[in-house]
Write a structure and sequence with these properties.
Elements: E1 2-20, E2 26-46, E3 51-56, H1 75-87, E4 92-98, H2 109-124, H3 131-139, H4 145-150, E5 154-158, E6 162-165, E7 178-183, H5 190-196, H6 207-217, H7 220-224, E8 228-229, H8 232-238, H9 240-251, E9 256-259, E10 266-269, H10 273-286, E11 292-297, E12 312-313
Parallel strand pairs: 1-8, 3-4
Antiparallel strand pairs: 1-2, 1-12, 2-4, 2-5, 5-6, 7-10, 7-11, 9-10
Helix pairs in contact: 1-2, 8-9
Length: 314
């Protein structure tokens, strides 16, 4: 039996990075949401306890600087083996991933694949760990993974281990927003960007609260005017093309545009689906720079890595 699950990309609508800790890592505060750009993941249980991961990259753009770890070293394999070790589970799994999220692009594709591995194997292996325990395991694998295990719009603090879901007022649901995601055809190293990050760029005092309010009320224009990423200027300094593309998106009528995470992908918020598609069309027709782009939407109420509706059993 094969279990298929979609693993969503993420964007950081707000990312504030503070000083370096004694252990060399940085504390941060972020507001993060999954989006409808997803990798497809197939899980086939193996009774022999073995774990393997295969990747299909045919639908990815050609990206300079991308290095794919072998099956034993990638996050997905590590997530499966960590769950085995923590639960004593003797089952194994063969994982096949159809990659659609650009690699090394600040969209959390590898992190989402690992989060989806933890939540899916916890079900199909019958290990039945509570979500709080899965979040703890996720924090041992990477800073974005706990948030993606939790799903939906979340506030993230510390090194990513503190995850607080944003919940709509009673009787309401959080509204999705449309956006354009683009990748310029090269990857950035998260470690390199953090090492280059010297100036502590902090947000205006009200920006974080404004973004939280925008997410809770569905006010995309308020969100667009409060986008913030401490790392963006560092990305711009090393990759001037990124600055040009963000400016181009704004000139084309995006409500707001920003580098996603540590780059290299960029996203632009739109007023509705039609606006997003027109924005992408104009970018493709008027740009003299080859780039990959997709129209997507945020999934603020999604807990897609933990629920059955997106699961297809064959």
């Amino acid at each position: 039996m094969t279990t298929r699950v979609e693993a969503p990309a993420k964007i950081n609508l707000f990312l504030e990075v503070f000083g370096k800790r004694a252990d060399g890592y940085h504390d941060l505060r972020s507001l993060l949401t999954p989006i409808s750009l997803c990798d497809d993941m197939d899980f086939e249980i193996r009774p022999d306890g073995g774990v393997s991961t295969e990747m299909d990259l045919d639908e990815l753009p050609e990206i300079v600087g991308v290095s794919i770890a072998d099956s034993d070293g990638n996050l997905t394999t590590r997530a499966a083996r960590l769950l085995q070790q923590e639960t004593g589970c003797r089952l194994g799994v063969r994982i096949r991933i159809k990659k659609r999220i650009p690699i090394g692009g600040g969209l959390g594709g590898g992190s989402s694949d690992a989060a989806t591995t933890l939540t899916t194997l916890n079900r199909i292996w019958g290990t039945a760990l509570p979500q709080t325990r899965l979040v703890e395991l996720a924090a041992r694998l990477g800073s974005d993974i706990p948030a993606l295990v939790r799903g939906g719009v979340v506030a993230v603090e510390g090194m990513g281990e503190r995850v607080i879901p944003l919940q709509a007022p009673a009787g309401r649901s959080l509204e999705p927003w449309w956006l354009v995601v683009l990748n310029p055809g090269f990857s950035t190293s998260t470690r390199d960007i953090y090492e280059r990050y010297k100036t502590l760029l902090t947000s205006a005092p009200e920006s974080y609260n404004n973004m939280r309010s925008a997410l809770l009320t569905g006010n995309v224009r308020l969100a667009a005017s409060n986008l913030f990423n401490s790392l963006e200027s560092t990305v711009f300094d090393k990759y001037p093309l990124e600055r040009m593309l963000v400016s181009r998106l704004r000139e084309e009528g995006a409500l707001g545009a920003m580098v996603s995470g540590s780059g290299s992908s960029i996203f632009a918020l739109a007023g509705d689906e039609g606006h997003a598609r027109e924005l992408e069309k104009n970018l493709r027709s008027r740009s003299d720079v080859a780039m990959w782009s997709r129209v997507a939407k945020t999934m603020p109420d999604s807990v897609m890595v933990a629920h059955d509706p997106l699961e297809v059993r064959v």
